[in-house]
Design the sequence.
């Protein structure tokens, strides 16, 4: 499949699709109408040279995806709230959204970085190898992450979000396979995609295992500090792999992408046709899929002739 440049995420009863700075949120309202809002998000850093630097672009992308994700999720949720929002309420909401993003980052660091390290310290009395302790810490981190992903999948609201997540992937896979974007073609497309955020987070966990097995220091406090300070570096490297995976059909890259695709079997579900329609509406608001598919078909035709 050829890289299209679009990506997105599931929101409450809807899907957000992003293409460059332009993004659209399509939501299925309680009255079953699909509403689509199109807007622009330039990101946190406007300097193109800085934001396109390897590793750094991954850090920026991660932060921006969290901010935009929270913003679009809040927007989608507004259709299911009874009270009308005033400008004052909107300012308050933006402030609370910022706090929520900050709190989410702190909580994630605590659960997925600090907690596994703390648990691994309990084994130092019986295990004297720093390498083995680091590996054990990584395994604990991986288990916590997978249990978290599997655990929230049991919630009824999350199940529907995972179905919309599946619709998002299927829409992107449909056009990147050179197929016309319609319900029938989307339905038969795969719900797994190599550029998924789930795969990114799993790669973060796996690369952190390698990092802390290689970087060995004596001080327990310094070890803890390194686990926090190196998060942006690990996220940046993970982003570079996901970026490569989305643009490559190399057998080695495909093999390394397999664990993330397997985990997506938990974080995505098969959507119904109504959800697929929402995904299509979101794609069409930001992406000229007809021109893309036509160019892809011409490219494939030329290859066959050659």
Sequence:
């Amino acid at each position: 499949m050829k890289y299209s440049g679009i990506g997105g995420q599931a929101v409450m009863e809807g899907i957000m699709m992003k293409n460059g700075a332009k993004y659209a949120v399509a939501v299925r309202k309680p009255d079953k109408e699909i509403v689509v809002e199109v807007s622009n998000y330039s990101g946190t850093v406007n300097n193109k040279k800085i934001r396109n630097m390897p590793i750094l672009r991954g850090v920026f992308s991660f932060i921006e995806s969290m901010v935009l994700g929270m913003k679009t999720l809040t927007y989608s949720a507004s259709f299911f709230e009874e009270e009308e929002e005033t400008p004052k309420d909107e300012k308050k909401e933006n402030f609370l959204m910022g706090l929520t993003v900050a709190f989410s980052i702190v909580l994630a660091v605590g659960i997925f970085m600090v907690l596994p390290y703390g648990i691994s310290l309990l084994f130092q009395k019986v295990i004297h190898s720093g390498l083995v302790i680091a590996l054990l810490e990584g395994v604990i981190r991986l288990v916590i992450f997978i249990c978290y992903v599997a655990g929230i999948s049991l919630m009824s609201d999350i199940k529907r979000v995972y179905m919309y997540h599946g619709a998002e992937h299927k829409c992107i896979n449909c056009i990147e396979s050179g197929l016309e974007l319609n319900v029938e073609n989307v339905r038969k497309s795969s719900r797994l995609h190599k550029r998924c955020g789930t795969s990114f987070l799993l790669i973060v966990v796996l690369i952190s295992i390698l990092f802390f097995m290689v970087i060995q220091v004596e001080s327990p406090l310094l070890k803890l500090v390194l686990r926090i300070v190196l998060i942006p570096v690990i996220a940046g490297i993970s982003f570079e792999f996901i970026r490569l995976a989305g643009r490559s059909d190399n057998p080695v890259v495909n093999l390394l992408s397999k664990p993330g695709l397997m985990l997506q079997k938990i974080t995505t579900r098969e959507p119904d046709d109504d959800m697929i329609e929402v995904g299509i509406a979101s794609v069409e608001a930001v992406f000229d899929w007809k021109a893309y598919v036509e160019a892809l078909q011409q490219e494939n035709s030329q290859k066959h002739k050659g």
